[in-house]
């Protein structure tokens, strides 16, 4: 009779008790233990339940880890005392968010900060009578109709809209708006960066040094500030310019057919126009400055012409223009008689233009 020994891990998957050697060869072997099928099915269901509970416990552990790693909710943004954020704001990405997050916010300035507004109808701040910009003081009638000070005097303090007396009743609300309202200069695109009071805009436009100027040469449509015009003439029309320096006399030759001549100062970038207009008694010659405002003082200049031992000298100040005209405004003119013309109709002049602040006063010249 052969003996078989089952080692650990071999044989059936169900545990089976080790066989005991009988005490005597005549005793029968003990019967194997019985495993009913119902108990086997219950054990398999309990194993499945244990696996499910283990999976659920692992998921709960992962959620607890995520809750621990996740940062606390972001506190609300603190409002700035001067200005709140407006529009779309780019926030810093967090671990559980996408890299870029856009949050729409509202634009509202604080009470102490300035605000920017756009007037859809700028004429709302114009005088309804003269259609000019309202200036302080602004008067109103009992019905609330407003009028500027000049119109109020012309209408003898009677409202043009309802014929009610205006008197000295001033509209303080409109005046405060005019005082606080700032606008940029009309010549902003030509280099002026000043922000001026709305009620003084008209005065600033008249004296702005960046006012629009046009090229005096025929067929050229260039427009720009006086500095831009100077550079344009140097680049495009250099052969048609006469260069000079301040406080230095220079000769100039023109003919009776020359309507004008452009004078260019070499160092300070100023352009002048010498105009020649025919008259019954001779030729009228004046000098104008290009670009400066009409309210600023002009340059003092001197013109002199000679003919056979005689000479005519004229001294005056330039009038400032922004475009060339055939009959420019002037404080005076040099009249060149026909007897002073050359054989071929040429006019010989000695011209001297003084720098601003260094030319002699007109009163001393007249004296």
Automatic annotation (TrEMBL):
- Which keywords does this chain's UniProt record carry? Metal-binding, Transferase, Ubl conjugation pathway, Zinc, Zinc-finger
According to the UniProt record, what class of enzyme is this?
transferase
The biological pathway it contributes to is: Protein modification; protein ubiquitination
- One MF term from GO for this chain? ubiquitin protein ligase activity
PROSITE patterns documented for this protein:
ZF_SIAH (PS51081)
Reaction catalysis annotation = S-ubiquitinyl-[E2 ubiquitin-conjugating enzyme]-L-cysteine + [acceptor protein]-L-lysine = [E2 ubiquitin-conjugating enzyme]-L-cysteine + N(6)-ubiquitinyl-[acceptor protein]-L-lysine
Q: Where is the signal peptide?
A: none
State its Enzyme Commission number(s).
2.3.2.27
Q: Spell out the family assignment given in the record's similarity comment.
A: Belongs to the SINA (Seven in absentia) family.
The name under which this protein is listed is RING-type E3 ubiquitin transferase
Organism (species): Populus trichocarpa
